[in-house]
Amino acid sequence: MSLRYALLALLSAGPMTGYEISRRFQSSVGHVWHAPDSQIYPELRKMEIDGLVAGADVDAGPRGTKRVYRPTDQGTEAFREWMNAPLKYALDRDPAILRAAYLEWSSPEAARRMMQDHIDHFAALVGQYDQQVFEIDERLNVVLLRRLNGLPEEMQHRVAAFKRFAYEGLIARAEAEIAWAQRGLRLLERYSPAASVFTGQAGESVEAGAG
Amino acid sequence: MSLRYALLALLSAGPMTGYEISRRFQSSVGHVWHAPDSQIYPELRKMEIDGLVAGADVDAGPRGTKRVYRPTDQGTEAFREWMNAPLKYALDRDPAILRAAYLEWSSPEAARRMMQDHIDHFAALVGQYDQQVFEIDERLNVVLLRRLNGLPEEMQHRVAAFKRFAYEGLIARAEAEIAWAQRGLRLLERYSPAASVFTGQAGESVEAGAG
DNA sequence: CGTCTCATGTAAGGAGTTACATGATTTA
DNA sequence: TAAATCATGTAACTCCTTACATGAGACG
User: Fold this and answer.
1) CB within 8 Å: A211 and B95
2) Which nucleotide is nearest to B45 (CA to C1')?
3) Are A57 and A17 in contact (CB under 8 A)?
4) What is the pLDDT of residues A59-89, one digit of tens each?
5) What is the pTM for the complete model shown?
6) From residue B64, how far is each of A67, B22, B57 by CA, in Å?
């Protein structure tokens, strides 16, 4: 149910087409919330039926028309209500943690590769997040500029500070993942040189595993 | 698709009924992977059809019978394969980050409450994780004991070390969340004493928000 | 002449949530 | 005698993923 609030959040910067939302959800804003086309277009239609956004068919030059959405007063109010309601925390369900807990079932090489992939994955994300923070600080982000346009300077700082804060959270998380996987590599170094008893055929391993 | 691997992981400690799995998934092991009854029983049936587990109806005394599942050789092999395959990383979609990015839309009190709830939530989790680590270190966890039973001592250390490592990851994450929310509180202190322009009625706010 | 961008979806299926349903036995 | 534990599900729904579909204009 958060997708519609993510859409309202993005649309609070100004009117957009489904296509533009889709592109933003795949690049910059996509770090905060990601969704594919196949979810966005139908959800916008549903939100229109529910009176949260208003769509208008606008001339798109030689390309015919496109549908531009903007939040209605009701949509803005629904977003604000959601922003003031308590958050529900989902229970944990992360394949990386699941794997880590049963790493004796991986081959030593696969275990090391998993940790290295984890580090590489989150290091790449940190790079992307840093770039976003830079674009926030330097006011290079198009959607942010649209959003800040017309606000008093103090409020501009405030709005930008919150965007920055969100990315700082993502960076802190990613760095925690990297540090954890590095601990994992050190742990594997201590245990992996010795061959795993779990690398044999299925029959043996059931014996070894179930004892 | 990870649920079945979580089930195979748990069953690798020894045979269990759906009911016992369900209880474990709601308490101790539930921190690593959570699932409700309504998902577990049907999934076990599907896995039996797919040949990954074998179910046997066993006498349960005066209560009639119960169905005990154990992994088949094929199931054990499928689990090992999954443990050796590369992980897929899902794209980010976290309501807490989404909110943080648009915190100018929350009332100052709601924003502070959100941060405090975040801290409380993850502090409680850290407490639970610490307890699990204690139970791993002291060999108090029933499933772990079942799993270690019969393994050479060196392997016991190894297996327990990986379980501990998984919880260390959860703890590191939770602590990163706490630190982040504390930064959030400090940020709000700087910006919130001044009233938000976004606290008026819908009409005004659309002006202010969209500029 | 081919690929990229603009523009908007459908369709099928998997994964997860929430609520409901049932009934015996054991414990406080 | 009321509540918790043992034991096993169904049903409806939402949310998300993956694959497929289409067509025009712009760019190189």
Assistant:
1) no
2) D9
3) no
4) 988 888 999 999 999 999 999 999 999 999 9
5) 0.91
6) 62, 19, 10
